Amino acid sequence: MTEELLWLILGWLLGVVAGLLPGIHANTISFLLLGFAANTGQPDKWAYVVVGMNIVQAFVDFIPNIFLGLPDSEAFASLLPGHRFLAKGKGLYAVRLGIIGALSGSLLAALLFPLFAGFLAKALDFVEAIIPLALGLVLVSLVAGERDWKKRGQAVAVIALAGGFGLLTLPSSAFADPLFPAITGLFGVAGLLNGLRGENRVPEQLDGISPLKPKNLLEGGVLGSLAAGIVALLPAIGPGEASYLLMKLFKKTSASLYLIIVGCINAANLLFSFLFLYLLGKTRTGAAAALERLGLLDAPTLVAVTGASLVSAAAGAWLCLWLAKAAAKKISQVNYRSLNAGVICFLGAIVFLLQGLPGLLVLVVGTAIGLVPLAFGVRRAHAMSYLMVPTLAYYLGFPG
């Protein structure tokens, strides 16, 4: 038990690094670790590292996502929910909401394993058959959710740009791994560039704790777990899209609830992906793909991985809160534009080192497309058509 804990702690530390450093994802580190696993002959031990790292990153990711990329005050209406809290001096509170969601998502996912397994056994063929219809409905719903026809037309333009970009780059042999620089550009660098237009200082962050009603916690956990199931079953659907669609369906508008749901999805989706791997031998996340490469597909491994996930969730919550408190104290003291610019340069350097000029080209084009929804004032979620449109084309049988 002590040895397993040490391997988990190594995973937690790597998860903190992956969560805090933009461009360094747990998926990338997971596949680097596979080489070490092959040399040591201890795949079960490295599985603890992979699981611990991915779970902790699901928590720590909230820190850069909330504290970086805040635009100017005139753009308040189009801010992401986390940035709205940051602009009001409540960035730490926003992180707390994400932590609450991720903790509840981890626990509820583990409790829902039997129900989810039973559903998969009976309805998987049906789900696979309706994936094209489901993806199409998601795209239509995202467009319909814009406030007027002009915005809907602009949303269609974003979907066409990002979807076309995905169709061109994802199947191409000219790029080693276009997904990483494309997503980094569409959502990372584009948001950071938008943040350069903002104030040079972030408002002082408060450490107040606003109480949440048990009803709100339960509501966020249930909706988040339901959304996580959708994300696990439907390829190319991300946490943001699933959260938005469920909140629209149930007519919820709370930014606090949104952050809880996103946190819940991030953690629960990982656990559901482990179950998906065990039952069907299919991978839906990088962590599950790493476990598959390690050859760990049996029931004892699923039990061990689930237990390790719950322990890692507790550790991730504590680490994230501790780091977020430190970030909240310092963020109002730094030159915010310089911080955003530094992160942009870091991301560009990482992409160039890993993928050279082709990767840098994908990053630049992705960034340009990612700026379009920000300029139009429509939801950035439309840019996820980079994945959804090629996936839809694949299931409809188009060559690619």
TrEMBL record:
Transmembrane helix in keyword set: yes
Domain DUF112: 5-384
Keyword annotations: Membrane, Transmembrane, Transmembrane helix
Protein name: Tripartite tricarboxylate transporter permease
Record bears the keyword Protein transport: no
Organism phylogeny: Archaea, Candidatus Iainarchaeota, Candidatus Iainarchaeia, Candidatus Iainarchaeales, Candidatus Iainarchaeaceae
Entries under InterPro entries matching the protein: DUF112_TM (IPR002823)
Record-annotated membrane-spanning stretches: 46-70, 91-120, 126-144, 156-176, 222-245, 257-281, 301-324, 336-354, 360-378
Domain of life: Archaea
